[in-house]
């Protein structure tokens, strides 16, 4: 009960501070800019809501190819970063420090193909002939609405020069990865293959659990008007 009362009191205090903060803390109401970092690159728009509270959104995207070994199987993969942040920036002080919370509409995914060793492919610790199972395609994606919490420096709408540099550091809570593996040929008549595929999928999920907490570090340049 006390924790609940404390949370309500703290929220009320923050809102009150925002409402009574001097309007001169910001000279502009809208800013547009570019941002790049671990979530991708793209554009963003910042809108002033209150003197110490901004709303920020945009589009992040990036793609790259690579290869690696997961659960003792080598994969060639393509990473596609695609997200739309919906964020609130709160500025408790006048030095540009901010606390940010919100969600990312998270459409990032990884697709890949398991690579054979000669004519054999290791699936779940058992080797199968490529001629029998074909390629094994994989897909990894995440929670579509992923909460975000972070801190940063710089206010795109503060008075002074219309050009501002901002920095964000935070964590995207995108949940444990969803993993799907599918062979390109009909494997229903191969004894034990379904069990091996299930084990390979479970091993991949376990190996990739660290991705549920994705670090987000970015730098942006904005122009206010």
TrEMBL record:
Q: What is the species listed in this Swiss-Prot or TrEMBL entry? A: Chlorobaculum parvum (strain DSM 263 / NCIMB 8327)
What name does this protein carry?
Uncharacterized protein with a C-terminal OMP (Outer membrane protein) domain
Say which domain of life the source belongs to.
Bacteria
Q: Where would one find the signal peptide in this protein?
A: 1-27
Asked if Signal is a keyword of the record, the answer is: yes
Keywords assigned by UniProt, alphabetized? Signal
């Amino acid at each position: 009960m006390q924790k609940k009362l404390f949370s309500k009191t703290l929220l009320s205090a923050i809102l009150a501070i925002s409402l009574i903060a001097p309007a001169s803390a910001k000279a502009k109401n809208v800013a547009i800019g570019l941002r790049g970092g671990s979530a991708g690159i793209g554009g963003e728009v910042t809108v002033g809501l209150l003197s110490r509270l901004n709303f920020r959104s945009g589009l992040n995207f990036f793609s790259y190819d690579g290869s690696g070994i997961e659960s003792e199987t080598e994969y060639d993969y393509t990473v596609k970063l695609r997200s739309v942040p919906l964020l609130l920036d709160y500025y408790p002080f006048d030095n540009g420090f901010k606390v940010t919370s919100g969600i990312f509409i998270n459409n990032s995914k990884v697709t890949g193909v398991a690579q054979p060793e000669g004519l054999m492919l290791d699936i779940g610790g058992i080797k199968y002939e490529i001629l029998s199972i074909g390629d094994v395609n994989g897909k990894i994606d995440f929670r579509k609405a992923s909460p975000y919490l972070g801190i940063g420096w710089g206010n795109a709408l503060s008075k002074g020069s219309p050009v501002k540099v901002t920095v964000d550091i935070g964590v995207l809570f995108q949940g444990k990865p969803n993993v799907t593996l599918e062979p390109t040929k009909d494997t229903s008549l191969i004894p034990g293959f379904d069990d091996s595929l299930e084990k390979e999928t479970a091993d991949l999920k376990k190996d990739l659990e660290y991705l549920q907490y994705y670090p987000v570090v970015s730098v942006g340049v904005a122009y206010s008007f």
